[in-house]
Structure formats: structure tokens, C-alpha cells
Amino acid sequence: MKKTMLAALTMSLFTLQAYAADTVKIALTGPFTGGSAPMGVSMRDGAKLAIDEINRAGGIQVGTQKMKIEVIERDDEAKNERGALIAQELASMNDLAGVIGTVNTGVCLAGDKYFQEKGITKIITPAAGSASMTQWSKAGVKDLSIFRFSADDGIQAAMVVEEAISRKLTKVAIIHDSTNYGVSGRDDLLNQIKLQGNKLQVVATEKFNIGDKDMTAQLLKAKLGGAQAILIWGIGPELAAVSNGMAKLSLKAPLIGGWTLSMSNFIDNAGKNGNGTLMPQTFIEDPITPKARNFIDSYHKAYGVDRIPSPMSAAEGYDAVYVFAAAVKQAKSTDTHKIKDALEDLREPVKGVIATWKQPYAKWDPANEQTHEAFRRNQVVMGMVQDGRVAFANKADRQRLMKGAGK
Amino acid sequence: MYTLLIVQLAVSGALMGMVYALIAYGFQLTFATSKSINFGQGELVMLSALFSLTLIDSGLPYWLVVPGGMLFGVILGLFVERAAVRLSLEQKGEGWILLTIILGLLGFSAAENIWGRDDRPFPTPIPSDPLHFFGIDVTPLELSVAIGVLTVMGLVELFKRKTLLGKAFEAVSADRDAAQLMGISATRTIQLSYGLSGLVAAMAGILVAPITTVGPTMASVLILKAFSVAVVAGLDSGFGVVLIGLFLGALESLTSFYLGSGWREAPGLVLLILALAVRPNGVFGKASIRKV
User: Fold this and answer.
1) Closest chain B residue to the Cα of A223, Cα to Cα
2) pLDDT above 80 (res B117)
3) The complex's ipTM?
4) How many domains does chain B have?
């Protein structure tokens, strides 16, 4: 009796190993609980949608055989220290093909070094803070296994400043949270204001902590300085507190900021006070192309919702998986180092829901982070909160994307 | 313009300070009768708010949600008394300190598992459009906090002074042994104080929820401030907590304006240190005379 059990156990151990060798192991990490959860959950669910589609079609063609994707999920709770622990755990796995995810810039800063040490390919999505890529160029790393698949804060800050200038505003206030994301966002904004010719005068630079609900003091400083717009960098619940505070103080200035203003916990908690808020977006939940309609419908159906908590994270997670899968196919291997090389020279265009990705990355050049950044300015549009959803702020963008898909 | 600004800051802060005062009042109620406090009071605030949110989600109208949430608070308060306080008081021990903290942690984990970790909006029929008084903006929501706090405290004080049970409460607060010799059950009275304390906590949760949103961590900052208020005012000062609450709230708001938003939490802690160093019984507290 004992012997047969032992035999069965060893057998199952062997089959398990055999099974593992037949799959492409991808880890999805991000905050699936807490204030950043709308982004983490949407990214994960969007990615899983793509993985399901690939697996249903038999898997990825790796050399001569088709391999299915196996998912490992880890919740980092948006906490830097948890992110570091998870990165160490994943980096110690020998058969991991790659990692997709991370929402919080601080988590990138805490954990990505473990992937880089082992040369494990990671696609950061949707964390946008500039620091998560500039840390590698500053360190002068020669060979980098970290890629990003999201509109970085540099692009976003540029768009926010452009928007304020194009509205002929001259005085703005910058309000940001005290996390790595908020502080690096503030620096990007100040930098962009300088780059775009110092046309904006910053009348107040104020910060708040995660969990703060009363923003009266910060907003009064902005109001007193005569700010015509509030440029903001933070995450959902606190952004909502700012928006509600502005309504209370009758501070009628547009709120323009990072893409986090599209998070459902901002939109829900701000209610009607959030209307008119502007933020850069890579994807808007508006079925303007057949591909977008298909993606939105299958997301709604698969997860039983009528609004994606963070459409942009979902779309980025979805496209990131297809880009990664294309790299696996081209590498003809599940070896993470070979996948990295393939990503740096992706020959076949990848049809995604945001865009068709032609050579999204190039060989890493420490002098130019853009080599490992997939998004360029023309893939990003301005979104605007309108009655509980994010819509295109400019009709022209909507037209352009519709036409682009028709070609 | 400048004075208006200061007044606006002070008023906004002070209205938040009313919530600190109400939670601090909950500390006082149990301290008066039993010389013990519930260190898990913040979790009572949070659990009651989450429970009320569930009531709202189930379609109950707001005017039924408020008493429902308060009843839930009372039950929680009674549970804390029975589970964590009673036995250790009977043994004249200090076990309640640890036990109330543990119950609080338990409540926190329970909330995370039942309701999830997300902050959620708390719908309320009270409008949030600002009203203007002499150039100062106040939302009806903030006013409702002030009115709610004063009403609850007023009613509890009235109960203590005008009813037989309330007089028993006062008697036990004044001298537990003497009251017991007069035939008043100290155990029952302490039970009552914990029930009232739970009610006050629930009310604080329901009042503040539309402003702060609801989630397991909603009370973690509030409770520290409330504790400062209770200690600075004196744990047996009655309405003293209102004055200190107003003062601390206004001070916080002004500090974050003039010293920078990073210093927001500082005044509460400085006040606490000052009070403990200069007036350990609180600004409005009576110096306790220990008879041997």
C-alpha cells in the first residue's frame, strides 16, 4: 500500500515536471487589492483574456511544438517591500519565461533589480513613473532585461503641460502625492514646463499623503495663488478627495493629471465633481474599431462587468501578452534570455487592441531609455471624465484612431 | 481676504475635528465607569460604517440605515465588554489593554475578508454642494457631521443626567465601590457604558464615511487623533473633547497650510506630548485624588 502510494507520488511528480516543460510560464504581478487594485486587476484580467485566446488556439508556436501559457499570479498589494519579496521569489524560478505587470513605480524600484540580476525578461505594465526606466540608464547598465509597455510619465507630463498651454493658461498649481510616483511626476511636470518654454507659472507646489481626505489647505494655496488649472499626480482615492475639495471651495479650474485620473475609484468617489477632468490615455473604452469592440465585449462578458475598472491597464496587459508571445515564437524557445533578445528585435508586427506594434523595442542603449519603451506620443490621447466614464477629450483623436484602424 | 482664508482653513479643519471629538467621547464613556478604554475603538468605527454600507447596498433607506448601524455599534460594544473587559476588571488586572487591541486586530482582519480592502464611496442623501456663509465655503455634509456629533453627545449627556439608569452611570463614575454598596450593579453599568461607547463609535463612522470613503483603514488615522484629543482634554472632561477636537482640527489645517502639507500630523503629537508633560490629567480634567 505504502509502496504504491510512493510510486504514484513519484509518478505524479514526474508528470508535473513534464507538464511544466511543455508550457510557457509567465508571471503576472500587481496590486490586486487596495487603492491601486483597479489598475492591477484590470491589467491581470486583460492579460488573462489574451492568454485564454492564445491557449484556446492551441498555444504559442515554439519551434516545432505548440505550447500553452501557464500563469503565475502574485499580489504585491502596491507595497514596495512585498514587491521586492515577490521579485526574489520569481527570480529564483528556473523555468520562468518572463514577468508581466507592476502598477506602482515604487514596486518597480524595489523589485526589478532581482529580475535584472538574473536576466529575467520583464515587461512593466502599466506603471508609468519615469524612474522605473531611468534608474537603469542612470546606472549605465549595458544589457537590460526590463522593458516597459505603458505611456511613461515623460510623455504624459508633456501632454498635461501642452494641454494647459493650449488652453492659454498662465498660472497653474502642482499637487502630488508623497509616493515615488507622485514625486517623480512632479519633477516631470516641472521639467516639461521648462522644456516647453516656461509659459506656465507654478503658483503652488503641494503634496499630500496616501489616505489624506481633507485637501483644503493645499487647494487654498492654489486658489490664493490664482491657479487656473490644477496639475496633479497621485492615485484614485486621494485624487477624488482633491476633486471634491475643489468643488467645496468653488475652485473652478480644470484638473489635469496623470492617467490615474481614469481609475474607477477616482471616478466613483468624485462623482459629478470629476466631470471634465483630463488625463492622457492609451486606450479608451469606446468601441471605435472592430478589434476594440471585440476586446471590450469579451472583457465585459468574461468578468461580468459593464465598465472596465481601468480600461487602459486592461488593454495594455492584453497587448503586452501578445507582444511577449510574439517574442517567444520568434525566439523559438521559452528561455527568458532568448525571449529578451527577440523582444529587442521583433520582426513581425503584432496586432494589438491599442495599436499594431511594429518593432516596439530596440537593443538597449543606456543613453536612450526609449529603446525599451514601447509607447510614443502618437499612441496616447487625451481622455476626459464624463458621467462616470472616460471619453475622448478631442473628437479629432477619435477620428484619427478610427481611420488608422481602417487602413 | 487673508482673514477669510484663515477662517476658511480653521472652519474646514474644525469640522473634521468634531469627528475626533466624538470618537474621543467614546473613550471617555468607558473610562468614566470602568477606568478602561477600548483600544480597538477605531475598528468599531470602521466595522459599523462598513455594516451600514451593506445596509445601504441592500436598498434600505438612509433614515433606517443610521439606527441600524448604531444598533450594530451597540452590539459590538457589548461584545467587547463581555469578551475583553469584564473578566480582567473583575480580577482587577490590566488584561483588557491587550485583549481590546487583539479584538481590534481581529475586527480589522474580518473586515478585510468580508468587505475587501478597497475604499468605497458611502452614498448619502445629504448634498455635497458648497454653501456660502460670509465668504466661507462649507458643504452640508460637513455641517451634518457637526450637527450629528453635537446631537449624539447631547442626547447621551441628557440620558446620563435625567434618567435613573443615567444617574447610576454617574454614580459608578464617581465612586464605583460606594455605588455598589448603594445597590447599583457596577457590572451592568460598565456594560451600559460600553454599549453607549459602541453607539457613539458607530455614529462617528456613519457621519464621517461620506467624506473619507469607507474601507478597513478608514479609522486608523482618525483613532490616533481621537486618542490625542481624549488625553489632551482629559479622559473625564465631558464636553472638553469638543473644544479640543475643534482646536486640533483647526490647528492641523492651519499647520498644513503654513508649514507645508507634510507637517499635518505634527500638531496632534506635539499637543499630546505637551499635555502629558504639563497637565497629565488633561486640560479640562480633574486632578484625581487617590485616597489610600
Assistant:
1) B5
2) no
3) 0.74
4) 1
